[in-house]
Write a structure and sequence with these properties.
The protein is mainly alpha-helical and about 290 residues long. The protein is built from 11 helices and no strands.
Length: about 290
């Protein structure tokens, strides 16, 4: 999964950078999503693999807090990017003549910076609260990365502030993103059904379906893992560990596959790259250069 995530997201970035026709807001947001996925998956996978390969189970407390900050911060960045992508699709479908004037490159850059700042600010209280608790219990957490609730559960103090803040972020900050996305796609679907031709409706719905699949891959595992860690005391431990890993591993792995296969412009460019590579390294091409 790590190899697929790395290769897939790097390929998306390369295609968007080298193809001038893809220099549009939708693909800029897709590039931001690819960078975010790379940061998320790289923040946990090297340490996770070192646990399995080298039995390297220890992590410094400061490094643990840093990993926690990166995970929560960039998850919120990813959620914000999905919200921005929903805005882009809304403007493109509901106000197509104004799309280029509303979502200029300057506006796209500002949205990306705003999502990064928002994620950084929202993740900061996780670290400040976790750092202030006194820890006198075992120093073993039953996860392959520093999951917030598992770390603060080791504290010998009343950790309700950390627990309540985690629920606040889950239902209020992330919830607002989901509400905005749902409202955007409600308007988009209304506009789609008003299109005159069936082919136009199917093409537009296919583009929106790609975004919806990617969003479900991030929000559903995240919601399930967060609720299971707080209210799933009767669930097997391996189930908690697997769910916590999957909500961080699935989106970076699936997003490049979903967008690479379902987005025609990216798929066409990818096929052209494969064709060029095959032509360059085929026996006939080698023989021709040798002759």
């Amino acid at each position: 999964m790590y190899i697929i995530a790395l290769m897939g997201n790097v390929t998306i970035l390369f295609i968007v950078k080298t193809e001038p026709s893809l220099h549009e807001p939708m693909y800029y947001f897709l590039s931001m999503l690819a960078v975010t996925d790379l940061v998320l998956v790289t923040s946990i996978l090297p340490k996770m693999l070192s646990i399995f390969w080298f039995n390297s189970r220890e992590i410094d407390f400061s490094a643990c807090l840093t990993q926690m900050y990166v995970v929560h911060g960039f998850f919120m960045v990813e959620s914000g990017i999905f919200m921005a992508m929903a805005l882009d699709r809304y403007v493109a479908i509901c106000h197509p003549l104004r799309h280029s004037t509303i979502l200029t490159n300057h506006v796209v850059a500002k949205l990306g910076l705003a999502m990064l700042l928002r994620g950084s600010i929202i993740a900061l209280p996780y670290i400040l609260l976790a750092r202030q608790w006194p820890y006198c219990r075992t120093n073993i957490i039953p996860h392959t990365h520093c999951k917030h609730f598992s770390v603060v559960s080791l504290a010998c103090a009343d950790i309700r502030a950390s627990s309540y803040y985690g629920l606040f972020v889950l239902f209020f900050a992330t919830g607002l993103d989901v509400v905005f996305i749902v409202l955007s796609y409600t308007q988009i679907l209304r506009a789609i059904f008003k299109l005159p031709s069936k082919d136009a409706r199917l093409k537009t719905f296919g583009t929106c379906g790609t975004h919806l699949c990617a969003m479900l891959a991030i929000y559903i595992p995240r919601l399930f893992s967060s609720l299971a860690s707080r209210f799933g005391e009767n669930m097997p431990l391996y189930f908690h560990i697997l769910s916590a890993d999957m909500y961080l591993l699935l989106p970076p792995t699936l997003n490049p596959i979903i967008y690479g296969v379902k987005t025609k412009q990216i798929w066409d460019r990818l096929l052209r790259l494969f064709s060029l590579c095959r032509g360059k390294f085929s026996p006939g091409a080698v023989a021709l250069r040798q002759s």
